[in-house]
Amino acid sequence: MQYLIGGAHMERALVIKRRGGRLKLIHGSMERDTAAATGLHLIDRDARYNPYAYLEAHEGNELAAQVAYLADVIKDEQLTGRLGVYGMYDAGAAMTMLNLLQDRILDTEIVGEYGNSLFATARETKDDREIAEMVEAGRLTSLVVGDTLDFVSGHDTRDDLVVKRDGDLLTIGEVKAFIRSRIYHYGMQEDHDTIFAQGRDAGVPHNNGTPDMPLRLGQTIVFDIFPKLNSGYFHDMTRTWCFGYATDEVQEIWTQVKEIFDRAMAAIAVGVACQDLQAMTLDYFESKGHPTSRTHPGGYEGYVHSLGHGVGLDIHEEPRLNIAAGNTTRLQPGHVVSVEPGLYYPEKGFGIRIEDTVAFKEDGTLVNLTSFSYDLIVPMK
């Protein structure tokens, strides 16, 4: 729905379309101004399909009222033949409602899709208007990351610990609260919990970080941030930091991650097979002696994930930079993907990931949506 109505936020709205017909938006009367801004043909739900009238007619049975409402819409709009249903709804509730709806309607078959659906295909490529939104998302996200670096590095230290003015230790949770405040300061939203994971936690790719853990110098911090604009478009970037200093081992591993990151960024182009970029990354890490998802499937150490994924109205969408069976996708204009190699050694107490998000404009031009330094060591001011 957000894709069809330009990111407007509406409750219990419904978009309908006949083949060859125009988009129609059924909306609540309280959201009529928001609805008008979409430019779609509008139907005021409260005037034409009043929810309270349906509830009264069905003695308060919400399921029966919803089924009757949808059946009336289908009848009024003459939606016959195959009717595709899309949207976000609890799986069990949707199954119950749609089965009852199917029993109520004639000449209409309700169908759904799984995986490579109509909307997954449409959303896989972005036009230049959407990419402009994502450029802005990248700009604002980079500002948040810069503010966070300044915030932490501006603190005092004591015995390799980061200390606040009152003498208490600065914690991961306090840094994440600061990050959250800056996300909202720049008019964005934190739809998923930002990753700010230190030491052993950084060695588990989707560990969000332990809130009460004190911030320590010399330990790797994987900072993976993925806020979104109010229009719904996400940005995704990761930096790995060591405040103050880094060990020789961490510096060596970071250099390897940065080298394959640079190679992948140089190789990514329209026409390149997504599988080839992942294969190149696997070959490189294996040549350096690291276990990978190809040599040690399901393993916890080394390179354990794919090189990247599509980014858009979801943080993870098509295309995928992996070698999964059936992935024959080649990069094309409109694709927006993350590039994020990483190495993870939780038992050694560190993890490293570097990530930018890039886009191919309609003319095939590559645009890096992420603009921030890659430095591993952050000096304390």
What is the CATH architecture annotation of the largest domain?
Alpha-Beta Complex
Strand count = 18
CATH superfamily of the largest domain: Creatinase/methionine aminopeptidase superfamily
Structural class by sheet pairing and helices:
alpha+beta
In short:
It contains ten helices and 18 strands.
Structural notes for this entry:
The chain has two domains: 14-121, Creatine Amidinohydrolase, Chain A, domain 1, CATH 3.40.350; 125-378, Alpha-Beta Complex (Creatine Amidinohydrolase), CATH 3.90.230. The chain has ten helices and 18 strands. Strand 6 and strand 7 form a beta hairpin. Helix 9 (248-267) packs antiparallel against helix 10. It is globular and about 70 Å long. The model has no long low-confidence stretch (mean pLDDT 96). The two termini are 47 Å apart. The chain has a four-stranded mixed β-sheet, with helices on one face. A three-stranded mixed β-sheet has the order 1-2-3. It has helices spanning 32-36, 45-48, 51-57, 62-76, 91-104, 118-124, 128-153, 172-185, 248-267, 274-287, and strands at 14-16, 24-27, 41-44, 81-84, 108-111, 156-158, 161-163, 195-198, 221-225, 237-243, 308-310, 317-321, 336-339, 342-345, 350-353, 356-360, 366-368, 377-378. It has 381 residues and is of the alpha+beta class. The protein is 33% helix and 19% strand.
